[in-house]
Model the fold of this input.
Amino acid sequence: MWGIHSPKARLAMHLGTSGDTIKEDEGDSFSEEEQEPEEEDERGEEEEGLEVIDDYGSLIGSGNSKDVLTAAFAGAIGRSEPALGVVAGDGRQMLYRKMQVQNVDLHEMGDEEEEACLYISEALSLRQQYLFRQAALPEPDAVGSSPLKEALTEEVLFQWQPGAPVDGTSHTYQMVDGVMRVYDTALEDRKEVFVVPKTANDFFRDMHWILKVVNSGPCKTLCHHRLLLLEQKFNLHTMLNADREFLAQKSAPHRDFYNIRKVDTHVHHSACMNQKHLLRFIKSKLRKEPDEVVIFRDGKYLTLKEVFASLNLTGYDLNVDTMDMHADKNTFHRFDRFNLKYNPCGQSRLREIFIKQENLIQGRFLAELTKEVFSDLQNAKYQMTEYRISIYGRKKAEWDGLAGWVCNNRLFSENNVWLIQIPRLYTIYHKQGLMRNFQELLDNIFEPLFEVTTNPSSHPQLHLFLKQVVGFDMVDDESKCVPGNHPCIPPRNNNCPISCCDEVFLEPLVEEYSIAAQVWKLTSCDLCEIARNSVMQSGFPHKVKQHWVSDTYWKRGPEGNDIHRTNVPNIRLQFRKDVLEAEHELIQYGVSRKVNRVTSAA
Done:
């Protein structure tokens, strides 16, 4: 049987508890009231610690800690309890070993821990105030054989007949203090549709309060200790359940890491091709279209052949090393050098010709490259992307230009959706005299979107393009030091999707997974969990996520997972759910203690 040698704990055999006490179990287990009296610790206070021993007498783990591991595992074959029973890939209910970490002397929680719990609880509550909530929550519905075709189809995206009636809306909009207010004119009182939750002053006050929490000493200490403990929890979980997880994956037919959906959630469109692909494309164009006029430089129009001649380059000279577009150690924390890597052979004119959409040839070369990449994605089948494409906000016509480029070249793939990224370049625009104030930037970015929403016929191509857009992001020089911006990602968190960022600089998605597996010693279950999380965090439509993950993918734990689609064992999802609930319970306990202490003192 299992044993824990500690003056403050006894081990009980039980099947899954979520509270702070050991529950009674059928069989040889004993209740809390029947536990033997604690023995004196003969080793002294300084040697007080924790040891977990398995069935064969082997030491699993030991250390000095107030956290006592109460291990529970299903010993008898065929024995089933709902708390520890999860459905395997073949429909059988599997039992798994479950351990629980308990704080023995919770009454000794110090003032700092209570203060940190209160801060974290308030931060979670503040987050809820800024979250967008859909009018209708996702509900299970029928999933077709190809749900993506129902959500995004090429026919719907590019089939536009000029003059055809398109239903608009009865809404009006107005920019007030930097925030777009929307009103419904169909109502008598011209009611505001989306009530702004906070004012600008409220937002900045909340932001500075969050920065205060992030830099709080007690919060840093508590979070650091909890992250270390969570890492050890995960190590123990894998030690006890790795074989069960592997068997669960084997019992799921057809699925493995290579044929589950994985989404590259951070890749810039202008660098979506790998270096070899771009090199082949440039050589092909230089061979097939040398006399194509591609650029206007130094007061004259130049053909592709003349451009390379001015650079003293030929197709024979080109290779991956000559292109010099691979991100190496010299680009680390050097955003300026990183941006220069976008220039093939270090030449900005080649960047303008091949990987820009606003040029003399209306971005034809980049569109052809994109179609080839889409073809590769289609062949890969299980690799999805969210290509990031930039809107700078220098003028309102940028939206129509981008939408026209996408629609005219019919750039669509079932494996891709678009994400708009907006660089923080207002300071540069203002210094150059391109803008007088920040309001102009907001108008250039948002007014066309509200205009096309209320009246689609005003920007027909933009109306079609926005069907593929799933989100916005702000980008900046990430090497800059921002106060409070020091993320701590614990090993084996598995909730940070792997992405290429820029495939032309780095590696394709599957190779990134392979490198990560070697560096962090990830198992097949780890890789599949990361891939599942990439789908969950992506902007693909609701029906698509139902098809790829589960009919109830938004639920935590095994209820939101289908191993036949994700190849992630339900055991792993149950572990994640239990750990999250335990952390929330700890925070709430600390908050209640803090409140009671303040109340009693008053």
